[in-house]
Design goal:
Radius of gyration: 25 Å
Structural class: alpha+beta
Order of helices and strands: HHEEEEEE
Largest sheet: 6 strands, antiparallel
Strand content: 25-35%
Number of helices: 2
Length: 153
């Protein structure tokens, strides 16, 4: 449905260009710039429609904003903490506003197709090197995941 909407929205500015040409305003500076603006808008919607078509053909069928399949990595719960294992794919650090804790987003994978994102409090980039297999012990404390221990598998 979204693909059809983007396709229709890419055709509307082209109809505006046809109207400009039919009125003979294409030879004026205003007509030229209005045509360029309409072409740009049409191109953006058409490119978005092609991206959506590519996503549908790829097999996700979910459209824009989806990143494929994610499957949980092996998770063991021990008391109030839990241990997650996998290979570190990526570690992104985000600074928060004053008074809020900084966060790190860790992407773990188990094999080729399974991946899991884990949000941890603080900067854990040095503790979790990319490419290493790790077992991460973390504790949920008031909705925040706090890193307790890292062991390299």
């Amino acid at each position: 449905m979204l693909l059809i909407i983007y396709a229709l929205l890419s055709l509307i500015p082209l109809l505006g260009i046809v109207l400009i040409v039919m009125q003979g305003l294409i030879l004026t500076v205003d007509g030229l710039f209005l045509s360029l603006i309409c072409l740009t808008i049409s191109g953006i919607f058409a490119a978005t429609a092609l991206f959506e078509l590519k996503q549908v053909k790829k097999g996700t069928g979910k459209g824009a904003g989806t990143s494929g399949r994610t499957v949980p990595v092996a998770v063991r719960a021990t008391g109030s903490s839990r241990v997650e294992q996998g290979r570190v794919e990526n570690v992104s650090f985000f600074e928060s506003a004053v008074g809020q804790p900084n966060k790190s987003i860790v992407t773990l994978s188990d094999g080729e197709s399974a991946s899991r994102m884990l949000v941890l409090e603080g900067d854990v980039r040095n503790a979790l090197p990319v490419g290493k297999k790790v077992a991460i012990a973390c504790k949920d404390e008031g909705g925040r995941n706090i890193l307790l221990d890292v062991s390299y598998v």
